[in-house]
Write the structure tokens for this entry.
Amino acid sequence: MTRTRPVDDGLFVEGDDGPSLLASSCRACGTTTFPRQQSCPKCTRMDMEDRLLPRRGTLWSFTVQGFRPKSPYAGPKDFTPYGVGYVELPGAVIVEAILTGNDPQRLRIGDPMELVVVPFREDDDGTQVLTYAFSPVQSA
Ligand SMILES: [Zn+2]
């Protein structure tokens, strides 16, 4: 079986219903940040608590990354263009994320999106590194 690890601890957690992003929320003013922060960017207090973000949101803006980003990009050795976008989650939190797929024809602002965990690259020892991404919700 392939070993896996998250690209970074503390970005997302896997639950029974699927993955959720891990954010922090200010106890004083309710501001939510992702990734987590020690202090509130709005009121500067150090009174943050962990909060799981909703798994679904809507596509707010996106682009397609068509060339290899500059160092310290830690992606796969063979670069393929990928979508990157901002997804607005309920509670007025907008997160930046990789999007599954890179066909701009298949993405539309306002589309419903869902959090998924996807392979990102492989470590030298073969461990598969996982990251989070948003994928268009498959309408049944
Ligand atoms: Zn605050």
User: Anything to note?
Assistant: Residues 26, 28-29, 31, 40, 42-43, 45 surround zinc ion (CB under 6 Å).
